[in-house]
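WARN retry 2 of 3 for item q-0093 after timeout on previous attempt; input resubmitted unchanged.
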Amino acid sequence: MCHPVAAAYTERLRQAAELYNRFRFHEVVPVLQELKRHYLLDRPTQASHDSTYYSIVSCLGVALNQIGEHHAAVGELCALNVDLAAALPEPHPTSVKVCLALADTYERAGEPLKRIEVVQRVVDVLSEHLAARRKQQHCNGDTEECTGGVTDMDATVVLLLSARETLANAYGSVGDAARQLQLLREVLQSWRAHQQQVKDRSNRGSVEPTPATGHAEVLRVLGNLANAHGALGHRDEQLRLLQHVVDAKRELFGPRHLELARPLHNLGVAYGAHGNHVQQLHALLDCLDIKSQHFDESNVELVVTLRCAASAFASLGKSQAALSFLLRAQTILESQPHAATLHRHDLVQIKAEVDVILAHGLPTMVSG
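OK item q-0093 returned
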């Protein structure tokens, strides 16, 4: 028999997924709220045990977070976390992902230390679980690790490494870049050791070798490592790591994949801080081109890159181009009332930068 939600709400779920994946969070929130409400009406006793319901509420929490409704997001994710704790064995991947989303929400709500507390708890639980699994495997003489392929324990390792990376970045967000750098180096070392273990098992096993895991994750860690170096003033190392991430992601995902947008943007900002405005502009225009292929021309995701590119143009003495990019960013924010409210400070700054160029033709500087 077909699941009620799958039968009745397939189209709404598809619509929600499309809006969510295109970062149209203001539009997806009412759709997800409707789906949650009808789902609870249809299956009031089973909802807390259903993966579809978990996905709806988790995405709703993240979307609320993105539109600035941080306290509402905390409420949704906290309630979901309680449901998951009662329904699923600990630590379950879904529970971990919801906890990490909740941690991010705490920071956006102005409670960065609460974020560190939540993520540290996740790291501790996963570490204890993994240690117990390994001890049990050793006592039982389990040969799971020697048969090749990716195991359930591998999945736990990946979750733990992701949580440890999040913890490192949480320290970075409260200004402790040295602690962030130390933790990220440890995570990077652990990722590479895990990759080697999976490769060795595949080579020894009787099954076909599995593709090396963690390439994208390692590149993400390297990108965060570059940010930590930048915060500590290690500009050369920051540029080296960011260029490596861009080159590797281009090879891994293709030249116009959205995965390239963030590292290209960060590379451009780093070049700007280094005083190399030609390379800054080149990276930012490349980033903007990729974003424009994936987002509507009025998407607020374009605004930050438009502003940084305008800064690069202005630093190169190209005031007319800078003005054009700033006006485009201003138009995007003013065309969407919710965006103008959420990004009020950005809009005020953009207008001030436009006024400076119109009055004096002087450079504007945006840090990114």
